[in-house]
Design goal:
Keywords: GTP-binding, Hydrolase, Nucleotide-binding. Belongs to the GPN-loop GTPase family. Helix content is 25%, strand content 22%. The chain is α/β, with parallel strands linked by helices. Strand 7, helix 4 and strand 8 form a beta-alpha-beta unit. Helix 1 packs across helix 5. The protein is globular.
Length: 204
Amino acid sequence: MDFRNSDTITGPRIEDILPTTATAAVKVVIVGGFGVGKTTMVGSVSEIRPLTTEETMTQAGVGVDDNFGVESKTATTVAMDFGRISISEELILYLFGTPGQERFWFLWNGLFEGALGAVVLIDTRRLEVSFDVIGRLEERGVPFVVAINTFPDAPKHPVEALRSALDLPDEVPMIDCDARLRGSSRDVLMTLMRYLHSLAVPLA
């Protein structure tokens, strides 16, 4: 069979190849409850074609998955999302988005292995879905920042009120974002990088 005129992909696309200037890579995990925008964030900020494991939601999830507030959602991540972003010519971030439903949380163990830090995406319409997520990060000792994703009908609350509701220490950064926008998602990742740097540099 002649494949010379085939559309079959035989290797990585040029834009997917790791830059030759890259000297360091770190792993970051994007977590949050079901439907808060994790897949959207990975897709918006990744400089390569993101890997997603979204599957159509079926009747099997009825009574098992809590989709209150996101009833119109028709697909869900069942394993992970993966993307990549260059912070500088030398530093590369590998992004791993976790599944949101609790029945898939057993996959978190592998996804968090070797992670430098995490972004917790929250939806102020369903703040309660973030409690267990944050608790798991604190149990693991994983540094994280909280990103308040923008939804058209989401209520606005003062940052300090949200911090109190989530029982967050004062030093944990919180930032507003729109996960659909590359620049906004990148700002979240840069906030995490600055926070991780502050933890690594001892106070004078």
